[in-house]
Every structure is written in C-alpha cells, then in structure tokens.
Design goal:
It contains 6 helices and no strands. By secondary structure, the chain is an all-alpha fold. It has 2 domains: 43 residues; 59 residues, no CATH class. Belongs to the TRAFAC class myosin-kinesin ATPase superfamily. Myosin family. This is Myosin motor domain-containing protein. InterPro entries: Kinesin_motor_dom_sf, Myosin_head_motor_dom-like, P-loop_NTPase.
C-alpha cells in the first residue's frame, strides 16, 4: 500500500507517503522536545490560582448582582477557604512539610 500511495497521481497522497521515515520521526521528536520544554518551564513557575467572578449575567459595566457573585464564590470554595483562614489556619505549608508533619504523627 505504501508503494502504491507513494506513486499516486494525487500530490498530497504522494507527498505524504514518499517522505522518508526520518522526516516523520523528526516531527515527533520536535513535538516531544517542545513538550519537555513546556514541562520544564511549568516546573520553574510558582503557580497561583486566580478565580474570576462575573459581576452580572448581562455583562453590563458597573452592575453588581450580589446573589450571582455569592453563588460563584461558594461554588469555587472561596467562602470555605475564608472560614478556614479565620479559624486560624492561614499558613500554607509545602507538600513536603505537610507530609513530614502528619506522617510523623501516625508513625
């Protein structure tokens, strides 16, 4: 089938099957390298999550729908996070610190 496709009258089909295997492999290696680069960049970053709240359903400026905003804040956990912070747990621990602290408690 590869030989038939490489000798096709259709330019697209002929070009697709006549390219050497190393060229196809090059594309996959390029993609792999780009993904490794992306992962390396993401690993260097310190991620912060921003929650966007829509002030109203009409997308109108200077209008504030309190019920809609409260529902969004509750749905994404902001209200619960505020309650936890008020209860005296405002400090964030690194996962390693958290694990060591609680693993030692159950060992």
């Amino acid at each position: 089938m590869t030989d038939c496709s490489a000798n096709s009258h259709a330019d697209f089909t002929r070009d697709l099957f006549s390219a050497p295997l190393s060229q196809h492999r090059g594309i996959s290696f390029k993609f792999r390298d780009e993904m490794h680069g992306l992962v390396a960049t993401l690993n260097k970053c310190e991620g912060h999550f921003i929650r966007c709240i829509k002030p109203n359903g009409a997308r109108a400026p200077f209008e504030f729908d309190e019920r809609l905003c409260r529902q969004q804040l509750q749905s994404c956990g902001v209200l619960e996070a505020a309650k936890v912070s008020q209860a005296g747990y405002p400090k964030r621990l690194l996962f390693k610190e958290f694990f060591c602290y609680f693993y030692g408690a159950h060992a």
